[in-house]
Amino acid sequence: MHLPGLEADGPNFGHGRSPLSLIDGLTNDSAHMTGAVADALAEVGAPKGAEVFMTGFSLGGLHATNMAKSRDFQQEYNLRAVTTVGSPTRSGPTRPGVKVTHLEDARDPVPHLTGDRHELSAERMVIEYNHQNPDSAVESIAGSAHTWEHNLDGITLMEDNEADWLDLGERNHLDEFRAQLRFDAEVETYVFESHWQPMDTPEHIMPWQAGGVSDLDYLGDALQDGARELRRLPPE
User: Fold this and answer.
1) N or C: which end of the chain has fewer CB within 10 A?
2) Confidence class of residue 201 from pLDDT cuts 50, 70 and 90?
3) What is the C-alpha to C-alpha distance for residues 184 and 221, in angstroms, rounded to an integer?
4) What residues contact 144, with CB distance under 8 A and at least 6 apart?
5) Where do the DSSP E strands lie in the chain?
6) What DSSP line would sit under 82-112, residue for residue?
7) pLDDT tens digits along 71-115
8) Cα-flanking dihedrals φ and ψ of residue 137, to 5°?
9) How many other CB atoms are found less than 10 A from the CB of residue 155?
10) φ and ψ at 97, to 5 degrees?
11) Origin, by domain of life (predicted)?
């Protein structure tokens, strides 16, 4: 299963790759996306306990990493491996038995946006490359080193030059990962789109829907809660 990256579409926040999905990944452990993935697996007939191999680019890798940490998801499916490409870093351990590989270009700012660090282990590794390509397109504020095509080129070059670019531990990690991906069965491809469904009775109305100041009391409460949390932080 592959989870693609963020897709900004102006004021359209209804699709599953919108900034709302980024909030789900950063603050909600990807609970909504995990449910969508489980629905997709059920739709294609994957039985409970089926082996799942997951990749994700950028936002998709953030979701995939969260699923590698999720006990609930792994009670339903046997998540064997997760590979992320250019994805924001999340602290905290992944579940035992999941082979996790984080592929990152050294010049890509996105993996460093959160300020977190991966909690590495014998099953979890960051593999970094520095792919210099002046022809790479700049598709977003993240720069040319963050595009999907740029990273695929960098990964291909890395595999072609493993002996020079990677140490023994990194080469062994990739060998074990590739060994998991040798399938004899015929491969079928399914494509799903996810969407946000508005709540029938939302907890709060949006600011532009407010009929008066009293309708926005919840915003003041949220700001006060945030200020209290900031006061708890130690001074630098």
Assistant:
1) C
2) low
3) 57
4) 133, 136, 137, 138, 150
5) 2-3, 51-57, 78-85, 99-105, 124-129
6) EEEES-----SPPPTT-EEEEEEETT-SGGG
7) 999 999 999 999 999 999 988 999 999 999 999 999 999 999 898
8) -80, 150
9) 17
10) 95, -5
11) Bacteria
Q: How confident is the model at residue 210 (pLDDT cuts 50, 70, 90)?
A: low
Domains and CATH numbers, the chain: 2-180 (3.40.50)
Q: pTM of the entire structure? A: 0.79
Question: Is 117:91 a contact under the CB 8 Å cutoff?
Answer: yes
Across the range 164-183, mean pLDDT stands at 88
pLDDT at res. 140: 72
Q: What is the mean pLDDT of the chain?
A: 85
Q: What are the backbone angles phi and psi of residue 55, rounded to the nearest 5°?
A: -125, 155
The residue length of the chain stands at: 236
Residue 20 confidence class, pLDDT cut points 50, 70, 90: confident
CA angle 37, 65, 233 (to 5 degrees): 125
Residues 6+ apart with CB under 8 A from 71: 95
Residues 6+ apart with CB under 8 A from 229: none
Helix (H, G, I), strand (E, B) or coil at 75: helix
How far does CA 201 lie from the centroid of its chain? 29
Output the six-digit token pair for 18.
């919108």
Residue with tokens 């095509």: 149
Asked if residues 78 and 51 have their Cβ atoms less than 8 Å apart, the reply is yes
H helix or E strand, kind and range, residue 36? helix 31-43
Report whether 131 contacts 86 (CB < 8 A). Answer: no
Do β-strands 51-57 and 78-85 pair in parallel, antiparallel, or remain unpaired? parallel
